[in-house]
Amino acid sequence: MDILRMFKVLIASRRLFSNWLSAGIRYYLVKYGTLKGGIKVKCGNKEHVLSPRVYLNIVNAYYGGLLRDFSCSNKLLGKPRGVIDFVIRDGDVILRMPDGILLTIESFDQLVLSETWLNEIHFLGSDLSDWFVLDVGAYIGDTALYYAKRGAFVVAVEPLPSNYEVMLKNLELNPELKTRILPINAAISSKDGFVELNYVDQIDGSATTYGAGIFKSKVRSMKLSTLVREIASTGMDPSKFRVRVLKMDCKGCEYDIIHEIDTLKLFDIIKIEYSGYLRGKTYHELKKTLEDLGFKCRIWAHNEWAIRIGLDKHGTMTCTKNYEAIR
Fold first, then answer.
1. Rounded to an integer, what distance in angstroms lies between the CA atom of residue 243 and that of residue 221?
2. Which of 238, 255, 273, 324 could be joined to 249 by an S-S link, Cβ 3.0–4.6 Å?
3. Which pairs with CB-CB distance under 8 Å and at least 24 residues apart come from 65-70?
4. Between β-strands 39-43 and 46-50, what pairing exists: parallel, antiparallel or unpaired?
5. What is the pLDDT of residues 199-216, one digit of tens each?
């Protein structure tokens, strides 16, 4: 963020918080390591402590016109993109999605939430009753909750511990959906054991074993086939469901998973956000393997980043098998 824009964002935040100047100064002191902790903001007669990441997202969203109808009432703070509510519950600021799903304020990721609830890039149908979804790269649990809300049973696999902890909090906020989601803290890779994740922020949807990062975390890893066996050990049998979906957004691990042919045969739909740019690969290897298994695949750009990089190296692939039978 350039200095001029930083100044403009700070000035605009005076319409959000009565202590906008001290909050803004504290944010930059925390960002550059002079201070530690959260950012206290005053809204009306209420005070809230926000993480630096959430504070930055809120002021940027407001400056960019994405956060509208901002107020300091006891229940509603504003509507990011006009569709997501900031609400106060039991003294905490939480997010309420258009379908009623609740998320912690730490989950405020403009890109991801817009993809899931505004653009609905994960849409597979309005009624997913008797569907099984294996969500590899579940992040904060947004897609797991999205699918569970529509009736699916979801196994949500997320490797980064800090992301996983936020996901667990989000599941607790939605007790009526929690019973349909099995969370697992692990990375999926080419071998069982441990891998080192690289990431740049405490809550980071881009954590990967194949790219650079500021921080590192050693996490448990397993092959897709091992994961399926672990799921079976809980008493869950994916083969009993009418439709089985494998959704992957794992920042490069899709090129490891694609070699587990026998396990891939278990699924009727395979949806991949592929990141070939992290592995020096394109989508062609993925597409050919799945088409050889009888899938029909569609390649599409799910956001501007995919267009900028180029669909060969980044985008979404949705592959279906025997589509008429699952409609």
1. 26
2. 273
3. 66/110, 70/15, 70/16
4. antiparallel
5. 987 787 888 889 888 889
Q: What are the boundaries of each domain within the chain? A: 3-116, 127-326
Beta strand 92-96 pairing with 314-320:
unpaired
Cα 160 from Cα 220, distance rounded (Å): 10
Q: CA-based angle 127:250:210, to the nearest 5? A: 170
Pairing of strands 131-136, 243-248: parallel
C-alpha–C-alpha distance, residues 254 and 125, integer Å: 24
Average pLDDT over residues 94-119: 88
Cβ(274)–Cβ(317) under 8 Å? Answer: yes
Give which of 190, 195, 197, 168 is closest to 181, Cα–Cα.
168
Question: From CA 229, how far away is CA 222, in angstroms rounded?
Answer: 11
CA-to-CA distance for 54 and 119, rounded, in angstroms?
22
Reading the block at residue 213, the tokens are: 């990062």
Burial of 154-165, coded b for 16+ CB within 10 Å and e otherwise, reads bbbbbbbebbbb
CATH topology of domain 127-326: Rossmann fold (3.40.50)
Residue 16 burial by CB count (10 A; 0-12/13-18/19+): exposed, middle or buried?
buried
CB atoms within 10 A of CB 219: 20
Q: What is the pLDDT of residues 58-76, one digit of tens each?
A: 888 788 776 666 666 555 4
- Return the axis-axis angle of helices 161-173 and 142-149, rounded to nearest 10°: 30
Q: Is the dihedral of CA 294, 323, 233, 163 positive or negative?
A: positive
